[in-house]
Design goal:
Blueprint (H helix, E strand, L loop, with lengths): L1 H4 L5 H8 L2 H21 L8 H7 L5 H22 L1 H11 L9 H24 L8 H37 L13 E10 L6 E9 L2 E7 L8 E8 L4 E5 L7 E5 L4 E5 L4 H28 L37 E2 L6 E2 L6 E5 L5 E5 L1 H8 L23 E11 L5 E8 L7 E3 L23 E5 L4
Antiparallel strand pairs: 1-2, 1-7, 2-3, 3-4, 5-6, 6-7, 8-9, 10-11, 12-13, 12-15, 13-14
InterPro entries: DBL_dom_sf, DH_dom, FYVE_RhoGEF_PH, PH-like_dom_sf, PH_domain, SOS1_NGEF_PH, Znf_FYVE, Znf_FYVE-rel
Organism: Amphilophus citrinellus (Midas cichlid)
Protein name: FYVE, RhoGEF and PH domain containing 4a
């Protein structure tokens, strides 16, 4: 707050991030903890805690406010860390303190979410060991009922927080790979696998991270500290297929075929995880398409937009934002309704307000598309895609050179790669696994007069 008062960033940012944590801390430090410590000192004469808990547990409902605001708090923390170098420096300074135990601020902010369920678990254990005729049993049971009510508000957030913790761990293992710590990402499975070479019988050790929406195909890094893996390829679950294969040298092999790349892998326990993940993804997409079909039949026309109340799409009919197609979650992408068309959208796609005629020209929240139509403002032109966002094969007509080459690094096996030197970009040689791949897996040297890095050999098959 001291830095906020200096004008580094708005004080409301701190209040929105930490919600009512100061009230929770005051309750514990001034009431619950002192009363329990005092009773522990009197345990020989008064062996009971049920009366204290029955008196104080109703105040645990204040955790519901913190849990309710937790998703927005995490999003604000991420936004301001990315936006403001001063804010980021303050967070890093806090995290470097010994009292933080080398944990991130996000880890500490998750603790209050888990606190009430922990109380519930400890009180259940206490009751299991308490005799049926014990004088403290009645008060303890009543306290458990109250805590149980408060805990129900936290269970969903706990599941999300555990997933977020895992995402943070993966984020660190991958050397701060972007778009990992995203609440819409749900971790499914990880593990060592063997990747079978396409041209011979060799196999290479690799590591997979499987999420609800993508697969990270990684290479282990043999270093004492720092990141453990390097991401070689991202393959989206959308359009992915898996097929069991037969290999005399390696049992339990299967092929993963995605839009970005096809891999043949050997791993005993991954095949079913892939199948289930793809099935769930397809089911969500199907429900989304069905909802869109229903919407088209009853949607408000452009001429009536804002003049007639729309039919609201039910929350349970869609699983992702009907504008940006991002999956809904309890952390940062909650469901909102556009008051003009009735679509279910996320908060990012409904961050506009316009007066609606059918509601007495009161200001109402609407989606981006309806905002553009009702205000007459045109949509912003899409950002031009960079070279790393376009398939390699699309440079065939606009390149100095493109074609297959043989690539070998540090005397390893020669591999066939698709190489591109774009005509309108810097003179850089991009190496791809195939013409259909967007992300190059190497970006090693300039293709002009610069020498090759030590240990790198290129043998041209042909060039265009």
């Amino acid at each position: 707050m001291e830095e906020a008062n200096k004008g580094t960033f708005p004080p409301d940012v701190v209040k929105n991030i930490f919600s009512n944590i100061s009230s929770i801390h005051a309750f514990h430090s001034q009431f619950l903890l002192p009363d329990l410590e005092k009773r522990m000192g009197e345990w020989a004469s008064t062996p009971r805690i049920g009366d204290i808990l029955q008196k104080l547990t109703p105040f645990l409902k204040m955790y519901a406010e913190y849990v309710k605001n937790f998703d927005k708090a995490m999003e604000l923390l991420k936004q301001w860390t990315d936006r403001s170098p001063q804010f980021k420096a303050i967070i890093q300074e806090i995290q470097s303190q010994q009292v933080c135990g080398c944990l991130t601020l996000q880890h500490h902010m998750l603790e209050p979410v888990q606190r009430v369920p922990r109380y519930e678990m400890l009180l259940k254990d206490y009751l299991k060991k308490l005799p049926q005729d014990d004088p403290d049993r009645r008060d303890a049971e009543k306290s458990l009922e109250i805590i149980g009510t408060a805990a129900t508000h936290s269970n969903s957030a706990i599941r999300k927080s555990e997933n977020l913790k895992k995402l943070l761990e993966i984020y660190e293992m991958l050397g701060e790979e972007e778009d990992i710590v995203n609440p819409s990402n749900e971790f499914i499975k990880e593990g060592h696998i063997l990747k079978l070479a396409a041209r011979n019988t060799s196999a290479m050790e690799r590591y997979l991270f499987l999420f609800n929406n993508m697969l990270l195909y990684c290479v282990p890094k043999f270093s004492l500290g720092g990141p453990k893996y390097t991401v070689r390829t991202r393959i989206g679950i959308d359009g992915m297929k898996v097929l069991e294969t037969t290999n005399e040298d390696y049992p339990h092999t299967f092929q993963v075929s995605g839009k970005e790349r096809t891999l043949e892998l050997q791993a005993r326990y991954f095949f079913q995880a892939f199948q289930k993940t793809i099935e769930i993804f397809q089911q969500k997409n199907e429900s989304f398409k069905n909802a869109l079909k229903d919407v088209e039949e009853v949607s408000v026309s452009k001429a009536e937009l804002g003049k007639r109340a729309p039919r609201w799409i039910r929350d349970n009919e869609v699983t992702m934002c009907m504008k940006c197609k991002e999956s809904f979650n309890a952390i940062t992408r909650r469901r909102h309704h556009c008051r003009a068309c009735g679509y279910v959208v996320c908060w990012k796609c409904s961050d506009n307000k316009v007066p609606l005629e059918y509601d007495g020209n009161k200001m109402n929240k609407v989606c981006k598309d309806c905002y553009c139509i009702l205000t007459g403002e045109g949509k912003a032109e899409g950002k031009k895609k960079g070279i790393l966002e376009i398939e390699a094969g699309q440079f065939a007509d606009s390149s100095i050179m493109c074609g297959f080459l043989q690539h070998s690094e540090k005397s390893k096996i020669w591999q066939k790669v698709w190489c591109v030197i774009p005509e309108k970009e810097s003179l850089v040689l991009y190496l791809y696994g195939a013409p259909q791949v967007k992300q190059p897996f190497k970006l090693d040297f300039y293709a002009s007069s610069h020498p090759l890095p030590k240990g790198l050999r290129i043998c041209a098959l042909y060039s265009l």
